[in-house]
User: Which sequence fits this backbone?
């Protein structure tokens, strides 16, 4: 079926198993017409993430630019933003590690204007997106703390890291739109899902100011191991959860 009307688009999306076919059809038909719309629908039916096709995602009230192959921010990560924003202050130093598209950093800057924000990611495509979403912000490419300027050492008030935390063996069972179209390094957290989180935890204390806080997302099942790692690194652990969004955030405060 070649989509020629919103009803045709809905029918194709529903047949492909899209749960929110009507909402997706409205977004796609609003983004393109004619042959361009046909191409978008074909690609969506084939499993490409809607947000990558549209070129943007709604996150914490903002429209965040996205590109093919870049991790799509999840609604549950808004809890990470909320908890970090409650700790940030104008003029404070904020670092967004594993920044991806820059969604978390952009949301924090919108919630707390005037923070001194630095963002970093290992993936070049993600960094290019983050530069678009974080105008005027120091956005860097590199491996975790290696990407940060030395001037931030010991000065960071809020360190957010949306680390990958899917156990390697569980990636095969993820939805195809994530498994096949988002970068592996943004998903794969190693054997137990905490490999990258542990690297962040181990390095955080030397970058945090006294009273500074590290925040990162995990699954609920990973909380005991994650909080143990935070405590072993000399940070005071805490946990925030939101059952409605299925979100869990682990915090570590430098005393």
Assistant:
């Amino acid at each position: 079926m070649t989509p020629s009307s919103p009803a045709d688009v809905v029918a194709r999306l529903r047949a492909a198993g899209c749960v929110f076919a009507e909402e997706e059809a409205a977004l796609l038909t609003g983004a393109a017409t004619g042959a361009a719309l046909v191409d978008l629908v074909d690609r969506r039916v084939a499993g490409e993430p809607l947000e990558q096709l549209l070129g943007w995602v709604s996150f914490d009230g903002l429209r965040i630019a996205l590109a093919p192959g870049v991790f799509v921010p999840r609604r549950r990560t808004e809890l990470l933003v909320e908890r970090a924003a409650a700790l940030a202050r104008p003029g404070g130093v904020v670092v967004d590690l594993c920044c991806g598209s820059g969604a978390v950093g952009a949301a924090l800057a919108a919630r707390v204007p005037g923070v001194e924000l630095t963002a970093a990611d290992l993936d070049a495509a993600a960094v290019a997106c983050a530069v678009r979403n974080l105008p005027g912000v120091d956005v860097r490419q590199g491996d975790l703390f290696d990407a940060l300027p030395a001037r931030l050492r010991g000065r960071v008030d809020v360190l957010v890291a949306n680390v990958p935390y899917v156990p390697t063996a569980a990636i095969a069972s993820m939805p195809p739109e994530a498994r096949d179209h988002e970068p592996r390094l943004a998903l794969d957290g190693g054997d137990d899902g905490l490999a990258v989180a542990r690297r962040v935890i181990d390095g955080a204390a030397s970058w945090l100011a006294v009273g500074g806080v590290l925040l990162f997302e995990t699954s609920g099942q990973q909380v005991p191991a994650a909080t143990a790692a935070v405590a072993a690194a000399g940070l005071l652990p805490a946990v925030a959860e939101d059952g409605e969004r299925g979100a869990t955030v682990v915090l570590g405060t430098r005393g």
User: Anything to note?
Assistant: Residues 34-45 form the longest helix (12 residues). Residues 102 and 130 are 4 Å apart (CA to CA). The chain has a mean pLDDT of 95.
